[in-house]
Amino acid sequence: MALALALAGCGGHASQAASADGSPSPPGPSPSATQVPIHVETRGGDGEYVRIVETVRGRKVYTIRALSDEMVRGATSDAVGNLEQPHITFVDKSGASTIADAPKAQITERDKSVTMTGGVHAHTSSGSVLSCDVLIYNGNTERFHGEGHVQLTAPNGLVMDGRYLDGDVKLQDVNVTGSAG
């Protein structure tokens, strides 16, 4: 951490220069902190998983369990994480949850968004079941957008097929559109 702070221009104290008469001259302006590019990679092992918990104003919005995580932050960009075999529990404001699994996912630090890819399978705490090619969780709106081969089955047996899905985390306020082909 000290190395990162030093690289960012935040480490140590500035030394004072002496004027020609030997008296200390006032310190100059401190260098401003700059964001340092980082690359963090973690892997679960021996049955252990990587865990990520995301909150908004103290309320848990999702918990991720994955086999591995690779987080990258550029010098001027937002941190982005790539996950292998993510198992994600999304929680809405009422406490209802949807659990989703996919081969891969990408998370974005700033807006708390999650994009699951490779074939997503999800189920809600109320019994709805969703499958689609891609599922995007928008952290700003706390809503889902699904794409490709969308199939949503409600607890009462109603099946909706389409190309796109837009809906809440409970998958109760949803629109399924486009032809399923």
What keywords describe this structure?
lipopolysaccharide transport protein A fold, 181 residues, 3% helix, mainly beta, disordered N terminus, 15-stranded antiparallel beta sheet
In short:
By secondary structure, this protein is mainly beta. It is built from one helix and 15 strands.
Can you tell me about this structure?
3% of the residues lie in helices and 50% in strands. With 181 residues, it is mainly beta. It has a 15-stranded antiparallel beta sheet that branches. The N and C termini lie far apart (52 Å).
What is the helix fraction of residues, given as a range? under 10%
Q: Tally the helices.
A: 1
Query: Mind telling me the CATH superfamily name?
Result: Lipopolysaccharide (LPS) transport protein A like domain
- Silhouette: globular
Radius of gyration, Cα only, in angstroms?
Answer: 23 Å
**What is the makeup of the main sheet?**
15 strands, antiparallel
Between the first and last Cα atoms, what is the distance in angstroms?
A: 52 Å
CATH architecture: Sandwich
Q: Tell me the series of helices and strands, N- to C-terminal.
A: HEEEEEEEEEEEEEEE
Write the layout of secondary structure elements.
Blueprint: H1 2-7, E1 38-43, E2 50-56, E3 59-66, E4 68-73, E5 80-84, E6 87-91, E7 97-101, E8 104-108, E9 113-117, E10 120-124, E11 129-132, E12 134-138, E13 143-153, E14 159-168, E15 174-177
Antiparallel strand pairs: 1-4, 2-3, 3-6, 4-5, 5-8, 6-7, 7-10, 8-9, 9-12, 10-11, 11-13, 12-13, 13-14, 14-15
